[in-house]
Design a protein that fits this description.
The chain has 149 residues and is an all-alpha fold. 70% of the residues lie in helices and 0% in strands.
Length: 149
């Protein structure tokens, strides 16, 4: 009976201790405060520092439309080689938390890469049309009620 209790105590102590043994090699969660920071950590872990920096610079040039043909070829090569980190980086660099505001080229009203502003105008103009229809309807009803001809 004591062997069973001793074995249970050993397993109860050793199993949690062994699972926390790898925490030293993991990231320091106190340094990561936002989702984009977590994504950047994962990207750097997969790519390595140099490849991550190169890909991030190329991605920034691609988003700002300042990329040369050679840089585009290198970006395509990196995208094919590392599709996961590329996708994460694309989302991270388009995040409002990274740009510092809620309005950037990949979020908010411009979420469709420029078409968002068109939809905003359609929404505003259709609101004015319905307002005019409502006013005309009220005027028509008043004329009908007061029998104006």
């Amino acid at each position: 009976m004591t062997k069973v209790i001793l074995s249970f105590i050993l397993f109860a102590i050793l199993i949690p201790a062994s699972s926390f043994a790898h925490m030293g090699t993991m990231m320091n969660l106190g340094d990561i405060k936002t989702g984009p920071q977590m994504m950047q950590y994962v990207e750097e872990s997969v790519l390595g520092s140099n490849a991550h920096e190169e890909m991030e610079q190329l991605m920034t040039k691609m988003i700002s439309v300042e990329m040369t043909q050679e840089e585009a070829s290198k970006m395509i090569e990196l995208m094919n080689q590392y599709p996961g980190p590329y996708g994460m980086m694309m989302v991270r660099l388009g995040s409002p938390q990274v740009s510092g505001s809620g309005w950037n080229m990949m979020s908010g009203w411009n979420s469709m890469m420029g078409w968002g502003i068109v939809w905003l105008w359609v929404l505003v103009l259709s609101g004015f049309v319905w307002l005019a229809v409502g006013i005309l309807l009220v005027v028509w009803l008043i004329k009908k009620l007061l029998n104006f001809k």
